[in-house]
Amino acid sequence: MSWVAGAALSALPMVASAEEPPPGVPVVRPWPRREITLGLGYGSIYSAGSFVRSDDGATSPAYESTFTGWTLEVTGRRFASFEYGFLAWSKGGSSDGKGSFAHVLLRFAVEARWLPWGYARIEPWIGAELGIAAADDYAKWDATDADPEHSVSVARFGDTAGLNAGVRGRVSEFFALGLRGGLLYMNLPEVRGVVTEPGDTKGDYFVRPTDYSRRLWYSLLVSAEITVPD
Q: Which domain range does residue 166 map to?
């Protein structure tokens, strides 16, 4: 019997080595796990209400029903069914130096999501966000031989909140695609008319600020996400 015990003991290292992955092959981390997600998205917000245009188009605010921009977000997942983080949404714009109007819209918010299925290849979720919004309308006139440089800018700040529903599809252990939609609330100060450059008595240099009297907006966004263990 002693030779049987000796053979069994000698076979233990071989069994242990057989269970270990070959060198250079990463160990697949099972779910659930704590992870951090970095996402880059592109999407639009659409006015949920109708616009009432002024008859005086030259002096009334500008009206837009759709804004499209990029989203960058970072979220942490400490529990299988709960995720929270931070997002930044930006709609950029630039003036051509000849007086064209440019509009910039920024949103910064904290967000939280509930994932009822927990960790899975397909993860539906519902969530909420709360933060601040900033809008800026400006125009530039480059300097010429007869005229110096001119510029007009009007910035507004307010609060924002939203309710969203979405789904994440895990393509691999570290990469996923996302789709979401929801209802967004933005409370920015209302504008009354055009804004002229300080000291411009003739009103030659002005900008028509974008009107944000509509508070509710629909949102739609697609995203690519990298998920890494924490």
A: 32-229
In whole angstroms, what is the distance from residue 79 CA to residue 181 CA? 23
Does a structural domain hold residue 125?
Answer: yes
CATH no. for residue 129? Answer: 2.40.160.20
CA neighbor of 189 nearest in space, from 126, 136, 118 = 136
Is the link from the previous residue into 32 a cis peptide, with omega within 30 of 0? yes
Instruction: List, for residues 117-154, the tens digit of each pLDDT value.
Output: 999 999 999 999 999 999 888 888 887 777 787 778 88
Backbone angles phi, psi at 200, to 5 degrees: -85, 95
Longest dimension (CA), the chain: 110
Q: How many of the other CB atoms lie within 10 Å of CB of 140?
A: 19
What string of DSSP letters covers 110-124?
Answer: EEEEE-TT-SSSEEE
